[in-house]
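Final report, Chapter 2: Outcomes

The project's central promise was a pipeline that accepts a single protein chain and returns its three-dimensional structure in a standardized token representation, suitable for archiving and comparison. That pipeline is now operational. To close this chapter, we reproduce one record exactly as it appears in the project archive, with the input sequence first and the structure output second.
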Amino acid sequence: MKETVRLRSGASVTQINQREAAVQGLLDRNMLKTMHLRCNSGPIAYSQLNDGSIKLWFDPSEVTEEDPDVWFGSQGKKETMTLPSGSVIERMTQKKATQLGLYPAEKIASMHLELFEEPVAFTRRRDKTQLMLYDRQTTVRQPLMCVKCGKNVRYRRKLCRDCYEEELAVRRAEGDAHRNAFYNMDRARVLFFDLELTGFYDHDEILSVSIYNAFGEKIMDTLVRPTHTKKWKRTEKIHGITPDMVKDAATITELAPKIKEIFANADVIIAYGVSTDYSHIKNIYETDAEKAALKEKVRDAAGEFVRYIGEHRPDITHASLTDAMACFGIEWDGVAHTSIADTIGCMKVWEKLFPNYFRN
């Protein structure tokens, strides 16, 4: 089986011998330079030469003629060097090399890259000694090492497996202590709420509000008539609320006094993905002090679930309410993505995360 190497540029190059390259009509860098051509894509193959160096091959169907200003303007004598492989490379300034993405071997190594191709140019230091330059795009990425021990390849969170497991054990113990603590909260004064909206942004409007206490008792469940938005086709497909359904509903301004009263009597207010809901419900308050007081009461069930899976279920990569319910084996009450179902789902997820949250 022929060996394939993946370069930093993303190109995968397969090893072939020089005879195969000739049969396929492939071009190397010297040929491109001699014919004043530029390849618009990366190399497609490579050959290992007798001296151990690597020659890259380019697809002739992917080349275009080099800008005449480049090669007509450079007909003067240039300093060149012939490598052991027979390739001829030219001298250039370090400034130009950097513009072309060419770097010395030491710089390449500092980028956690491994040289693959032979030098493609050279420059001279101030003391007139030669400095070989390599194409960064044709290097191979080296595995990054653990930022803690520096000895092993990274596994997760920039740590090797051993360091990650060690850190995870500490985080898991802290998280479990946080979740299993006795908070002695009154179920009647802990509220769960959810909003459905006309869209996904701060300027969108509220279409429904559902509020339940931790006994599972409905405190409020109402549709809301937006005052500016007439249609919301994208979100209508998610929550099922149509313009006709809310045409006779109260506006959020009309509902604000009742919502404020409900929230004022709560010790804690919980939502799943609270940043979105809070950014809309806060607008019923007039002053920054009132908004800050509300924010002090708000808790985010989504954030707590993200912390839980980070400590116990790193295999779970998404953290929607549906993912949280599936993780804990919770069934939906009602139709998913309606404000009632989402509020009840949030409440059940919270009790799974915090089994000792409420007083007996």
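Archive annotation: The two ends are 68 Å apart (CA to CA).
This record, like all others produced under the grant, will remain available to the consortium after the project formally closes.
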